[in-house]
Records
---
Amino acid sequence: MSVKFIGYIGFNNASETQAAVRSRVLDKDYVEASAKAQEEGGFDRVLIPFSSNSPESQIVAAHAAAITSTLGFLVAHRPGFTQPTVAARQLATLDQLSGGRVAVHIITGGADDEMARDGDTRSVKAERYARTDEYLTILRQEWTAARPFDHQGRFYDVKQAFSAIKPDNLPVFFGGSSPEAIEVAGQHADVYALWGETLEAVQDTVRQVRRSAARFGRDPGFSLSLRPVIADTEEAAWKRAAEIEELVRENRIAAGLPLTGHRPPNAGSLRLLETASVNRRTSGCGPALRP
């Protein structure tokens, strides 16, 4: 089993420890420096995020690809706001221009207020995963069809769709921990992305996704997202973790943000909060990585 390392390109030099609220203003110099540093560091890919108030991820990826030669890009993309036929051609074009260095990370979206900012004010979470399922079906057909095709479904009605440009290498990453998400992942994900929870929780999620994928004759890979706290010893790493936690707390207080009572609507974040709540008592999970 090969292991690949995926980094991250934000849009400016901000984080929870530097500012409790991320401005999301695009800093071109920072994007370029971050891309070049991670290419020189040997990273396989970098994730470029997406939100309803951030710079557009595909355009940032196109710029970063133009100033690098080997670094791969994992472009976060939210289905439902761009027609799937259009998105398929956009991503295939980016794949061709980058020399096959692009993957797409499908983020269905769980927060109603986040979705509403881009005009999706009536859908509910289960419907959004059903829409993603249909969206990805059309996306892949646009990438592979040798002749024009029709599609009539619950969310999309396409007549004689066809793309002259096809991707050479464009894997689909997919995230989501709800039962609806696992179902869609099994059918469409080339790589299923999950957070760093306990070993037992990660094993359980991997088993669920594999069971779902097996029904479609598929065998996806897996991506595990972690924020390692690195120190010479485990105790030193725990000490540093506590310092980071306190700094984040102070930043949130200074910005007038709540410390309690805010629960994210998506299942993955809730699972992550549950893992974090037990801190050092979590079985099989610790922040220290020995150099």
Note: The first helix runs from residue 28 to 40.
---
Amino acid sequence: MESTHLPQVAAILEGVRGRIDDGAGSDWRTGLPVLSGKLVTLRELRTSDAHPLFAMLTSEEVSRFISPPPSTVEGFERFIERSLDERSAGQCACFAVTLQGFDTAIGVFQVRETEPRFGTAEWGFAIGSPFWGTGVFVEAAELVLQFAFDILGVHRLEARAAVSNGRGNGALVKIGAVQEGVLRKSFLRNGRYLDQILYAIVEDDWRASREAPRLVHRHVH
């Protein structure tokens, strides 16, 4: 992570530190902890989330730059069942995003193991378009980063975004992800292969960003 990102990321993190609440001390494979911020709560997916997720994530503006979501409510139910099975197997953690004070799912965040014991992992996310630009994504992303590095023990967290997905690329840069290269013709969508940008956040950089406020404080005084 470039040093120019550190104060910005640190300022965001100040509001979400220490918010991994229920079950953080237990094995996440038996049930995901609840992650709480000022705007959002992230929790385990439930079968009842299938209807709201279908409504939120199947519009063209949401789905055009992600892998095709399930096309039916029943498809979302199967996705949720599969996510729970993969969590039990220790392969993946998938959270429903809800607003504080409400329990309706408005999006999902997923962290998937790509190397044994989450040495390297890949994350993906989708948020309903009515909540774009509200701060929901940034806060949810920082909670998931804390879970990934502190609970899963991730060393390197990767993400891919289509080059033409300006909003997705901007969101990743905003939370401190570093662009590492372009994967040519790597994403098939609507019969076309699109170029993707590979981003990564490395544990050492993420932890350094959390120290930035204290470093700045000492420098000023």
Note: The beta strands are 35-36, 40-44, 92-99, 107-113, 120-127, 156-162, 178-189, 192-202.
---
Amino acid sequence: MSAGKLLSLVVVAVAITVAALHGAEWRVVQHQGRDYVSFENVAEFYQFGEYSHANRTISLRNERRGIRAQAGTSELYINGVRFFTHFPLLEQRDAHLISAFDIGKLVEPVLRPSRIENAQRVETVVLDPGHGGTDIGASNRWGTEKEFALDVAKTAREQLLQAGFKVEMTRTEDVGMSLEERIEFANRFTNAVFVSIHFNAGTGGAGVESYRLAPEGVVSNAANGGHHASATDPLPDGGNAQDNQNIALTAAVHAAVLSRVSSFDRGVRHARFKVLRHIRIPAVLLEAGFLNDPAEGQRIATPQHRQQLAMAIAQGVQNYNAAVNYRTPNTTFAVVRANLPPHTRSITEPLAESRLPDAVAPQPPSISISGGE
């Protein structure tokens, strides 16, 4: 055996030994120039004790967390909440693959938000009731989007104030406000989050969907339009500096809404709505139901339903704040605690076969985003 081959075997053996000591490592495969990892690898790294796949359905589960996905789609469920991946899930031979980009930009910050770098404790919540003035938004026989969104925001404000947050609103009455004015207003605040409240309309549509800013180079889940930038704009936006905070906040608010109201889960999505593109604080745009759906539109028109939506928004913000600041947890928030392996290297870092993982001291358990009281 040559000295070179022997050295290679030693390197691999040492890497395996270190990986065993410090948690599973990522095994990256290439497909059409993009990095992917297997769901089996995901299960190892995040310590899901149960991993199975049958008929293209993938399931990862332990006593407190779960991921379910379908090969060939762009959807997966994390802790029961529906997400849309940035790139399709693949099937190669017996392996089911997810892009490394989706691990870094979606799975990791949702499962382990306390590890998000530069996530700040939330002091101020900026509530943005959509539309206003001559811009009524969607409507039905019982009212308009601008009215319903403002009512939800006012009730959410009361809930958040009671929880100890400062609250600012882009509008407190029926006045028009440009998207640029909303962005400029939100960017006045630090240690803050931005929640834009809307209602939907569309043929045959029903349910709740939430949007965060699409990461750089990722195709949007929303169609181009007057309030939306190019779906494939390759340039980063100012809001992309908070990609991980954005997905954690969006997941927390979306999960809380689903826990409060009976509605179809249309998923956590990504788009380039203009109101999200240049926000310098973590931001989410909530579409809290379809006004033109007969049953859902009638429910939205009731004060009781809008109150539940408002309480859910407030709860989602609190869950996000607790999750990203886990080291001083508030146990009144229902969040999932689970021991997870420490990072030896991040999926988002360059991966070289011969690189030995760095030893990392054990970390306290993280919290994964979850709905609930």
Note: The first helix runs from residue 3 to 22.
